[in-house]
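haha ok so turns out i had the wrong file open the whole time. this is the CORRECT one, sorry everyone. sequence first:
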Amino acid sequence: MRFDTRTANVGILIVCVLTTLGVYRFVSDQRTYGATEDFAAITAYHRDALQNRMNSCRSALAGVAGLFSGSQTVERADLRRFMSEMSIRDYLPGILGLGYIEQVAREDLDAFIAEAAAHGQPNLQVHPDTGADPLFIVKYIEPQDENADAIGLDLNFEETRRRTAVTARDSGTPLMTPSLKLVQDGIGQPGFLLLMPLYWPDMETNTLDQRRAAFRGWVYMPFIGESFLSGLTSLEHHEFEFRVFESSVVAPEHLIYDSAPEGFDREAARFQQVERIAAFGRTWTIEWSSSQHYEAAQNDYFDLIILLSGLVLTSLIGFLLWTISRREQVITQQVIEKTHALKTREEENRAIIENAVVGFVTIDGDHRVIRCNEIAYKIMGKSRADVSGARIADVVPELEAVPEADEIQNVTVEDGARILGVGKRHWKTAEGADRTTFILRDITALERAHEQVAETERRWDLALRGAEIGVFDINLETGKSVVSASWRRLMQIDEAMDSDTMQEQFMARVHPDDLPAVLAADRACIKGETDRSLSLYRLKTPEGNWRWMRSDAVVVDRNVNGRAMRLVGAQTDVTEELLAQASLRNSEERFRLIFSSAPIGNAVVDVNGHFTMVNEALCHMVGYKKDEMEGGRNFVHLISREDCERIIPEVARLKASGAHSFETECQIVRKDGSKFWGMVDVGWTHDDQIDEDIYIMQIGDITEKKHVEKIKSEFVATVSHELRTPLTAIRGALGLLEASTAEYITPAAKRLLGMAQSNAERLIGLVSDILDMEQIESGRMNFNFSEEMVSEVMKDAESQMLCYADNLGVTLQFDPPEEDCTIYTDTARIAQVFDNLVSNACKFSESKGTVHVKAEVRGEDVLFSVRNRGRGVPDSFRTKIFQPFSQVDSTDTREKGGTGLGLSICKRMINHMGGEIGYESELGEETVFWFTMPRYLRDSQNDNSALVSTAANG
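then structure:
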């Protein structure tokens, strides 16, 4: 037996030694592997820092590109202001500036230099003269003092620069040149140009030809490689040294940057890492080598400690095995002592149970109560006589159904009057008899309090959810957070996620550029330097988007030493608010820029007629200074009395009808009393801030146009008058000749005579149409408005056109409205409109067709329609159909007759009479021309008359 025990002990010691050696080898391998992985993580962090700096460069260029995309013209001052506001050089080391390069055809070079001078870049000298066409000229670069040599530089002087610019233009992507010497750098360090193409935003860029046609220029960024690559992280020189090569392999001839000091032995480094990254169309290779400091930190001798510890432990196990064999004699004595101690402990436990604050009830295998402490009687509400020996189902029936579990179960007893916390354990005695012990606590008051708290929390969460506010409570001692359900929804975090990691989750998703400000605000509040921690920052969503958040936190608990213990705050999503503010600022800025820079006069007038805002063009036009105009001058001072009496009532009438703009020609009075003709456009809207209407006025000088129109009008009137008299005489002579010689002339001569009469009639119609057009355009056509019945107007049109339709073999069908009404119109002009529309419908109708003329009441208007079936109007002609001298086919003039002026005259007449005109057509099917006329409403007409009268007298 001794031999067996000794052999087993020796075997155990051998196993211990072998296990120690195995663990030593495993720990050594894991240490080496962990150091390698750690070095890879450090280099990955450094690589990401470089990628972030490159992305920042792209973002800076995108910002300048946005500046150009938002405006037709960007001046040097705009770029300088952008550089100053963005502080780009503060967070992008090595960047020499931001500039703009424009592609200029050699024939446009002088115009480009003049434009540059007008945009704040005077004395631009293009250099060197490369003879290329087009030229790629640096128009702006800021700061200009440090980059003066680059102004006017033509990138064609070096093939590398030219090729990179052309490739970026044609591909539409930002590209970087190979390393080169920058003109700003006198030392000759490796430098680079990063170019981003710009295209006009309203042009397509899907194909190469489209991109070239839409091309505007490049925004670019020159930088020095050494300054750009240094200082990426604080780990440089401390944990590693690195080199960057401008190629896909490690080649000394392509070296851009080497961080290592002289004497650094790269071959001796234990850890090496090489990666290739994409750098704006080029490939850079980065080689990292571990520093002596990093390698020394990895030599923790933990594997040797494991080996020594294992050997020591083996020795202790050997000693333990030796001692075990000597303790057998002591065990019997210890058993006796333990038995006595157990009895003592049993008595102690009994005393504890009897005096415990929780109830203990023990039942046997028949479910009868065999033991119960005093507090259990009170909890169950029973006496000792009721409980002893009774079945548990008769005492407290609810306990019978409680399952055995590790957790306390809540049980409601006696119709919900009390709630008990019940624990149930099954066990056996030393003799094997079944026993079950119930542990009871009266938790009625506690549960009621929990229910009240839960209801309060539910209502609070509903309030927070409605307000979209997330609440957080941070324990500053443990770093753990308690957050509301609304905070989880706001952060898009699953409800099941452990709250212990909330703080880490939050910090990991704050934008790296905003995190320092958030932490600084929290620190200041925790130290007591500020009352609250207020911060605005970007937060990354699970989808990868960034949302703006506002946080407001306060310290609610400090210890006796003033140290902060808890930080409680609220978080809200303000993305939409910030976007709205930014959009409003941009809109206001664009409005002010357009308003002030417009070449025509612009002004804003209040409800009393006083100028509140004017631009320089208007001041120059009328001879007043800006402060004179905005200092209380009224717009009536600029317009003659006759025009005021006409414009003010018309504006009032249009506002009452729901219109929002008015346009007219009138004479403008300058400061010196002289006058000029102006085109006045007035629009109005309601300003909610002051709860009043404001008027936006534009004035353009049309003096020259009026002079030309006068000459044209006189010429048209003279020519038309001189043509009408002889044409009338010719028509009369031809009629007399036909009547007197009808019996004697030959058929051929009669046909020629008929042609002459037809052409004479056509020329007379053309002269009449031209005179009508001239009178309408010059505003000299008189309109005599009167109240007319719709049915009477349609009868007159039918009688007028019936003979014409019969000659063409077309049937006319006139349908007046079911309920007759009146319109306010000029009978002669509306008859002329019917003549044009119905004659056109007859001419272009199918053979033996029918032309339907119908009137319908539509609210405050009457809709007239002329409907026929024929070849129709093609969609390609839709935009021209109401233009003068427009016909669908040139053969129409010969086949159907007409001047091409009828529909244009109709449109102008209908618009002047307050109506609208249009058409609907389907080729080969039905065509409908329609127009509307306002109904005669006596109250509204009286109101308008009163308005005009008041304006004229006032």
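The CA atoms of residues 104 and 111 lie 10 Å apart.
again sry for the mixup
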